[in-house]
Amino acid sequence: MKQRTKRLVAVLVGLGGVSLAVALTLNAFRDNLVFFFSPSQVLAQEAPLDRAFRIGGLVEDGSVQREGIRVSFNVTDTAAVVPVVFDGILPDLFREGQGVVAVGRLLEGGVFHANQVLAKHDETYMPPEAAEAIKQAQREQARVMPPEEL
Amino acid sequence: MLPEIGLLALILALILALLQGVLPLLGAARGDQALMAVGRSAAWGQFVFLFIAYLILTHAFLTHDFSVAYVASHSNLALPLKYQLSAVWGGHEGSLLLWALMLGFWSVMVSIFSRSLPADVLARVLGVMGLVAVGFIGFMVFTSSPFERLIPAPLDGRDLNPMLQDPGLIFHPPTLYMGYVGFVVPFAFAIAALLGGRLDAAWARWSRPWTAVAWAFLTLGIGLGSWWAYYELGWGGWWFWDPVENASLMPWLTGTALLHSLAVTEKRGTFKNWTVMLAILTFSLTLLGAFLVRSGVLTSVHAFAVDPSRGSYLLGYMAVVVGISLSLFAWRGPKVGLGGSFGMFSRETGLLLNNVILVVACAAVLLGTIYPLVLDALGLGKISVGPPYFESVFLPLMLPLMLLLGFGPTVRWKQDDPLQVLRRLRLILAFSLVVGMLWPLAVGSWSLLAAMGTFLGLWIMATIVHDVFVRLRQTPPVPEHDEAKSPRVRRLGLGYVGMQLAHFGMALMVVGITFVIGYDQERDVHLRIGETITVAGYDFRLEGISRVQGPNYVADRGEVTVFDGERQLPTLYPEKRYYPSQEMPMTQASLNRGIFRDLYVSLGEPLPDGSWIARVYYKPYMNWVWLGCLLMTFGGLIAAADRRYRLKTAQASVAHPDPAVLANAKPSGTG
């Protein structure tokens, strides 16, 4: 082979390798996107049943129940409530009335089965997604309410 | 009064950084020796004032001066001394001060160790470092002063976040920052070279040791962070693909690429543009990391509580730095020539592949890290990218890289014969393939991942051992060097020894990672007192729970006896601590560490009947990952100590004459 053909082959092989890597990457990327839905959106059936997603909001007061290794609680954005079950150990700062984000799947019957629960990591910190969900829900409520009640 | 002096010291440091940033560059442009000489004294002055500020902040912590807002929110009267000292960098403002201090430290180091550099090069390097420092010190002075007063002062502070009250806080941030900030030096060298129009082998040689040291610290810092998260968070995880972890991994990947591409530039005069690009890219990624952590855009254990002005400052700063660097590159870059040519199968090709793979890996991590943030910023919805994405991208990329790592260093520069290399290494290849495929059977069930890991690990280690022996046999004693009398290993050169040590560390890490992913066992269990559970053949029994009083917490301490069949292992004492100052519980895991496995117990929460939810792990080969990090760190430091880098510039720059370089070089550098 001539030097130029060799170089051409090398460039083509390189380009092929990189395109393959890009294709694999984008494919893996699409399959692993995890969307966020607020409890209101879950109740409005906007969330998918066939793939994992995140929900966030406040842990409803008095809703935490433990049964051996399984724990169940409700997540609310103050407008809607989604029941969540989780098998395992909750983060140290998981508490009733505090912000939380859970990753998992929605089961038939509207129960969210979490495989990961994230809480804030210090006293002043709130998961931004949870805060946003609550703010959104409150804006919605404000819009529904007649003006004189505001 | 002292805190005001601290702020004053910061302002003075800012002014000196400004002088360091402007005058030497001006001097280099005009050929004015006096102006160029300002760089060194300004660098020293800046460092001294930053150090004064640092001491004053430390003093405020030690004297419990809660009238300083930063102290009040990160310390209290009961905080143990070692955490008072390290709480200085336990929050946003203080860690920024540490960052700036280290930047000043690197400037001073450059001024000490680069005396042999031509005056204009040193002036430009220090000038660029000064401009970078202006950005960071300015950020501190204008948006995040650690000396802000809190009037009236509270009687007691809010205490340091209990998660940070751990030896990890003492070591992880300083080493990580040393690494992050250290990449300013190769960046400054690259920009200085662009400004001076002198990108030659000498430039690469000057940059290499600095890059190696920064890379070593970054490796150690990331390793320490992973090691800390492993036991501190109580989840037994050591890498979460958390955006902040990714933020440190990205400059590590491009920094590793830079280290390898510098080798080609130094030895063969090729890849120059690419090397400059990598230096700019790596530094930009460290800025991106700073932005991600400090702007509050992330949900992460690392994120600081923040106000939005900081985010926009950092974003603006990043835009300015990247914009100027890239324009300079576009303007000056193409002039620097292409360097020597090389064959299809050569060391250069291998290192080129290394660079391509590392940069593609970095791009993949960048995509997964930034995409959710961009989408969110545009109001297009909230998403996150799960760890499976990163794993499924990393695995196929690392496989060819590790294969390449085995034989790459044995391939000759310019042109080599693939068949000859194959013939040389065929026994090693066969050996590592066979043992690699069989070894996982000895551990448990066969898994493809662990088999690949063992094969690649053995392949790398065996080729290193082979290569070292070959070289020891071939390298004749060099009579004119003092080293002739020293052990034969010294004759290999520290650069070579460091490289192979780091590669060996990488091999250990590959084995560790694949085994711990393939064979770890995790059980969340409900344990009553006296109950035994079995994980991976080990029996764990909860003997009891007792109340313990710590210096600033109370804890429920479990006593867990562990049996390996009949043999009793050391008892584990996992704790659940409560820090009354922050009303915050903390999990303190307890570990039995070993060469081939870790046993790990952490307490979850108590149930009303006195039993506990607990988490029990079996983690095989976990310590190989940390050991690998350590070897890579030492490798980087040893390579940086190679005596080649300490030779006088005059000798250094003529070592590899290259027509393209000579055509471009100005006479002053080689005289």
- pLDDT < 50 stretches of chain A: 146-150
Mean pLDDT of chain B: 87
Strand order of the largest sheet of chain A: 2-4-5-7-6
What is the helix fraction of residues of chain A, given as a range? 25-40%
Order of helices and strands of chain A: HEHEEEEEEH
What's the end-to-end separation of chain B, in Å? 53 Å
Largest sheet of chain A: 5 strands, mixed, barrel
Strand residue content of chain B: 5-15%
Query: What's the domain count of chain A?
Result: 2
Q: How many beta-strand segments of chain A?
A: 7
Report the major sheet of chain B.
6 strands, antiparallel
* CATH T-level topology of the largest domain in chain A: OB fold (Dihydrolipoamide Acetyltransferase, E2P)
Any low-confidence stretches of chain B, pLDDT <50, length ≥5?
A: 649-671
Total helical elements of chain B: 21
What would you call the quaternary organization? heterodimer
Averaged pLDDT of chain A: 81
Give a short overview:
The complex is a heterodimer of chains A (150) and B (671). Chain A has 150 residues and is α+β, with helices and mostly antiparallel strands. In chain A, 34% of the residues lie in helices and 30% in strands.
Topology summary:
The complex is a heterodimer of chains A (150) and B (671).
Chain A: H1 3-31, E1 33-37, H2 39-43, E2 53-59, E3 65-67, E4 70-76, E5 81-87, E6 99-106, E7 112-119, H3 128-144
Chain B: H1 2-30, H2 33-62, H3 69-74, H4 81-86, H5 92-113, H6 119-143, H7 167-182, H8 184-196, H9 201-232, H10 243-268, H11 272-294, H12 308-332, H13 347-377, E1 383-385, H14 387-407, H15 418-443, H16 448-474, H17 488-491, H18 494-519, E2 521-527, E3 532-535, E4 538-549, E5 554-564, E6 567-572, E7 575-579, E8 584-588, E9 590-592, E10 597-606, E11 612-620, H19 622-640, H20 649-653, H21 659-664
Antiparallel strand pairs in B: 2-11, 3-4, 4-5, 5-6, 5-7, 7-8, 9-10, 10-11
Helix pairs in contact in B: 1-2, 1-6, 2-5, 2-6, 5-6, 5-7, 6-8, 6-12, 7-9, 8-9, 8-11, 9-10, 9-19, 10-11, 10-13, 11-12, 13-14, 14-16, 15-16, 16-18, 18-19
